[in-house]
Write a structure and sequence with these properties.
Largest sheet: 2 strands, antiparallel
Number of helices: 24
CATH topology of one domain: Amino acid/polyamine transporter I
Radius of gyration: 24 Å
Main location: membrane
Order of helices and strands: HEEHHHHHHHHHEEHHHHHHHHHHHHHH
Structural class: mainly alpha
Organism: Eucalyptus grandis
Helix content: 55-70%
CATH architecture of one domain: Up-down Bundle
Protein name: Cationic amino acid transporter C-terminal domain-containing protein
Family: Belongs to the amino acid-polyamine-organocation (APC) superfamily. Cationic amino acid transporter (CAT) (TC 2.A.3.3) family.
CATH superfamily of one domain: Amino acid/polyamine transporter I
Keywords: Amino-acid transport, Membrane, Transmembrane, Transmembrane helix, Transport
């Protein structure tokens, strides 16, 4: 047996305890040393903001320097097999089991299957963009790290805020859906397991069960990445059996007459539903955040990302079609659509299998969410966008316990109060915004390299990107204002085409991916920008209002804290020892980059 001293030593980070709580661990930067330095930092806000907007990271910094701030490395223990199951486990949950019935009933009708096709196509475009970055920069920060390199610190913070928002809201939404299916499994009335209060509608049903599920899954994620991965793929394999049953039994009892009318709410309803059910596709970014724990990123990440997304898209479309054929869209239950639909065709016993399958699916989504979002938060803390205490990796478990606790506590508080429809609409807008930034970053990475690209080409790239983004926003806005019109599209779509053609014809690519790259550049990333913007425009005004409010809160935090912390870290006085070792560190970083770029056999 280990002595108590040996066990205590396992919780030490070098000579310091992992469990430490001093001001230095949360605010070590010079700007927060005392009130005088903080007032001085605030007085330089405009200058510092300009510096951070222009500031850029680089591949070596993300791969080497920032990782050192966690004081311990994460364990490389995942293969393409693990990543594929991470992708499957991180997707099939509340999105398909709850939002399908809700959106078919309210917006799309039987055409909900087309909503999943549209959302899946848009998500696949984003997957291509993520894959190139995850192979080139295999770190835990995901899109935050990629945007820091290509678009700079300020743009990365905007993404980081939305990533954290997505993390918190996504976990809360799935946990609320877990309670709904558990209630249905017990044959109890809807919301009977929630605490009814006199708070505002949408926030008046308190959900302690959702909180408990979040805490349990987060605890598993904090104990061991490999064990959590094993639990996930075993549970996901069981889920696969339940999903196959739903699809096969559903088609056996299907009534094609339920598909008429196919589009009762028109094309606008299809796209409005697509913007909401996009929530069901947001789990794929979890794979990119596991890159630091992947054995061979250049091989394993493309297989895991593209393979899992292809399977998921096909599964979603089949399940949506089955649901539409089992029961008339006007009769679908918005909370537990699949189990109620099977009851409607006389398969009351199937309800229990469906509910259990849904609960298992949502549990694995929460488990993968706890794994991936903790890693996101870790890398954000490494950059000091949030206190660096959250960047620490536990020396014994090799997991970011502090960052996982941050997401879990915020998610639990959100799930306790907020209803699923409010959470899902906000999540989709936030996610689509980040994916749009990722597509822009791919174009910047391919066509701009610092100290190499001529200024004239940089100006052209900026102008063409502005045309692409502006025309995409115009198309989305015109759709929202005049869904039956066509004149506006005669202006916006040709502008988008000309902007993309301009990049293709007049700008040479400055960088070639070493292992795996997005095909058909610039057309595919440009189309991703357009589709993401279009789906954002299809979201309701309430979702945009919540998104704007959350963004304002993020900017206030950034101007008061994040800006000054990152500025201080970017302008640390370099020690003589660091200067002597700089060349060696860059050589080590280049060596690691080359290792990450091993070609797929």
């Amino acid at each position: 047996m280990k002595s108590s001293n040996e066990e205590s030593a396992n919780d030490q980070v070098g000579e310091r305890s992992y469990w430490r709580w001093s001001k230095q661990d949360f605010f070590p930067e010079e700007s927060f040393r005392n009130w005088g330095t903080y007032r001085s930092a605030l007085s330089q806000m405009c200058f510092r903001l300009k510096d951070r907007i222009q500031g850029r990271s680089d591949d070596v910094t993300e791969l080497q320097e920032l990782r050192k701030r966690s004081e311990n490395d994460m364990k490389r223990c995942l293969s393409w097999w693990d990543l594929t199951w991470v992708g499957l486990g991180g997707h099939i949950g509340a999105g398909i089991f709850v939002l399908t019935g809700q959106e078919a009933h309210k917006h799309a009708g039987p055409a909900i299957v087309l909503s999943y096709v549209v959302a899946g196509a848009s998500a696949m475009l984003a997957v291509f963009c993520y894959t190139e970055f995850a192979v080139e920069i295999p770190v835990a920060g995901g899109s935050f790290a990629y945007l820091r390199v290509e678009l700079g610190d300020f743009a990365a913070f905007i993404a980081a805020g939305n990533i954290l928002l997505e993390s918190v809201v996504g976990a809360a939404a799935v946990a609320r859906a877990w309670t709904s299916y558990f209630t249905n499994l017990l044959n109890r009335p809807s919301n009977s397991l929630r605490i009814h209060t006199s708070l505002r509608n949408g926030y008046n049903l308190l959900d302690p069960i959702a909180v408990a599920v979040l805490v349990i899954t987060a605890t598993i994620a904090m104990i061991s990445t490999k064990q959590a991965s094993r639990i996930n793929w075993v549970a996901s394999a069981i889920n696969t059996v339940a999903i196959l049953f739903i699809i096969i039994a559903g088609f056996v009892h299907a009534d094609p007459s339920n598909l008429t009318p196919f589009m009762p709410y028109g094309a606008k309803g299809v796209f409005q539903a697509a913007a909401v059910v996009y929530f069901g596709y947001t789990g794929f970014d979890s794979i990119s955040t596991m890159a630091e724990e992947t054995k061979n990123p250049s091989k394993d990440i493309p297989i895991g990302l593209l393979g899992s997304m292809s399977i998921i898209t096909l599964t979603y479309c089949l399940m949506a079609l089955v649901l539409s054929m089992l029961q008339k869209y006007t009769e679908l239950d918005e909370n537990a659509a699949f189990s109620v639909a099977f009851q409607s065709v006389g398969m009351r016993w199937a309800k229990y299998l469906v509910d259990l399958g849904a609960l298992k699916s949502m549990t694995t989504v929460l488990l993968i969410g706890a794994l991936s979002k903790g890693r996101y938060s870790t890398h954000i803390a490494r950059a000091h966008m949030i206190p660096p205490w959250f960047a620490l990796v536990h020396p014994k478990t090799g997991t970011p316990i502090n960052a996982t606790l941050l997401i879990t506590i915020l998610s639990a508080l959100t799930a306790f109060f907020s209803s699923l429809d409010i959470l899902a609409s906000l999540l989709s807008v936030s996610t689509l915004f980040v994916f749009t930034m990722m597509a822009v970053a791919v174009l910047v990475r391919r066509y701009y390299v610092r100290d190499k690209t001529p200024q004239q080409n940089l100006s052209k790239l900026g102008a063409f990107l502005l045309i692409i983004v502006a025309s995409s926003i115009g198309t989305s806005a015109y759709w929202g204002l005049s869904p039956n019109g066509w004149i506006g599209y005669c202006v916006t779509i040709p502008l988008w085409f000309l902007g993309t053609l301009g990049i293709y014809k007049f700008l040479p690519q400055q960088r070639t991916p070493k292992a795996w790259g997005v095909p058909f550049v610039p057309w595919l990333p440009s189309f991703s920008i357009a589709t993401n913007m279009f789906l954002m425009g299809s979201s309701g005004s309430a979702a945009f209002l919540r998104f704007v409010i959350c963004t304002i809160v993020m900017l206030v935090y950034y101007l008061l804290f994040g800006l000054h912390a990152t500025y201080d870290m970017a302008h640390l006085p370099q020690q003589p020892e660091a200067k002597l070792q700089q060349v060696d560190n860059e050589d080590d970083g280049q060596s690691n980059l080359e290792e990450a770029h091993v070609s797929v056999p």
